[in-house]
Amino acid sequence: MADKVLVTGGAGYIGSHACKALAAAGYVPVTFDSLVTGWRDAVKFGPFVHGDLADRAALDAAFAEHRPVAVMHFAALSQVGEAMAKPGLYWRANVACSLNLIEATLAAGVRDFVFSSTCATYGDHDGVVLDENTPQQPLNAYGASKRAIEDMLRDFGASDGLRSVIFRYFNVAGADPDAEVGEFHRPETHLIPLILDAVDGRRPALTIHGTDYPTPDGTCIRDYVHVSDLVDAHVLGLKWLRDGRDSRVFCLGTGTGFSVREVVDETRHVTNRPVPMAEGPRRAGDAVQLVCGSARARDELGWSPDRSTMRQMIGDAWRWHQNGHYQG
User: Fold this and answer.
1) Which of 27, 41, 91, 112 has its CA 20 to 30 Å from the CA of residue 283?
2) Is 142 a catalytic residue?
3) Does residue 184 sit within a domain?
4) Catalytic residue among 142, 169, 213, 224
């Protein structure tokens, strides 16, 4: 029988794509999700456990029933504005629940753990290509909570032999090329789906937050990675652990940044439609330019972000956008 992997947040955007990649790699992904932000319709590639990470009994039961060989942890709250306004919510949902998961993992005798972290742990390092050695100075409870989970994984590695692969990345974009799963948030906060909503009339216009940044076109610059490339790295990270290798941190990105206006222009080209736009003020905490290096992942994991061109990411997202949204 195929080995099972417990995927927390497997009904969400990245988690559902990870489940498809795991199934393609010969694993059985077991989605553990509360459906607070995830979608039942996104669970297509393996068993589903409706549970909350705060519920230790539910976690223990899931481990006992499915006996996974590893954990892939995506479940988290991830909105920066909300994290700044409600830090306690983020410390409880992200840190306390992750501690619960780690302890349940160890109690079940599982020692391989792949963690979805974030480059938000770095804070504001404008103009620097971020890598695994960049100092971590998070600016809000989201980034701080993710850094705390990284610290917990190291501590439990030292005390209990838990081995982890930690991935830090910025803007994830695109959708499954087969349009089986895709990106759908309520509310939507990610740039590309917001642009596509404006293109097809689901919202009146895209609001560009800040047009006076010191960049060539005045809008801030970010690194984008295709969700399919991203989850391929997670499967490679799982293999890294299953092969008996030590814990490791990897950054995932292309090393190339795109401004908001560049993403809008590419969307016009891909969809052949106009993009209604409005201009708004800068958002608190937004850096000018954030770009993520991934030399270590390329060299050590053999990872290559082949789909992470802006045209491909928008094209796959547009196909999903036209295909329909989750209903529940």
Assistant:
1) 91
2) yes
3) no
4) 142
